[in-house]
Amino acid sequence: MARYRGPVCRLCRREGTKLFLKGERCYTDKCAIDKKAYAPGQHGPTRRIKQSEYGMQLREKQKARRIYGVLENQFRRYFKEADRKKGITGETLLQLLETRLDNVIYRLGFAGSRVEARQLVNHRHVLVNGKRVNVASYEVKTGDEITIREKSRNMPRMQELKELAEGHKTPEWLEADHENFTGRMVRVPAREEIDIPVEEHLIVELYSR
């Protein structure tokens, strides 16, 4: 499956904000954006040019794509689905992205980043309602129970995450039992519960041009 394989710290620098693509590393002084708070390129820091309206809309779309690890065509499909549903399109778009299986695993604290969560799913370590699911984009529904496969819980990395999960704050729209690596989606998240630095109305404006 196609995916971005380059250095992810460049993506944070390009957007000018932390996208938390490397998990715990992003909270340390090793984070690249703390050392080089300017866009990547061979010429180093350059004079910032005022962005056009289109430029601002594009940056918000790129930021959302990169946070959730979604490629362009897939992101466009999410937008079309959100546009068909009732409600505020931008809010619905973020809800669709938040309820992806890889994101739910990350939010539950069973992975240090969305990339790691996607790897867990792809390697068949995750069960949804007792059935193995290996599709990271699987849409989790209200009431679904997510579990890390019993044989996978003894992996050294999972034990590390179990210790880190003690200080992890689980969103109110999810329930987590870190001791047993199980979680449940209680309801669809409200917009104020989705803590990503994106102005979704600009994405809607971009696709409505």
Strand order across the biggest sheet? Answer: 2-1-3-5-4
Specify the CATH homologous superfamily of the largest domain: Ribosomal protein S4/S9, N-terminal domain
Pick out the low-confidence regions. none
Q: Average pLDDT across residues?
A: 84
The name of the CATH architecture of the largest domain is Orthogonal Bundle
The number of distinct helices, counting runs of at least 4 residues, comes to 9
Strand percent estimate: 5-15%
- Characterize the biggest β-sheet: 5 strands, antiparallel
Counting helices, strands and paired strands, the structural category is alpha+beta
In short:
Helices cover 40% and strands 8% of the residues. It is built from nine helices and five strands; from the N terminus they run αααααααβββαββα. A five-stranded antiparallel sheet has the order 2-1-3-5-4, with helices on one face.
Task: Summarize the topology.
Elements: H1 9-15, H2 32-35, H3 53-68, H4 72-84, H5 89-98, H6 101-108, H7 114-122, E1 126-128, E2 131-132, E3 145-148, H8 156-164, E4 174-177, E5 182-185, H9 200-207
Antiparallel strand pairs: 1-2, 1-3, 3-5, 4-5
Helix pairs in contact: 3-9, 4-5, 5-9, 6-7
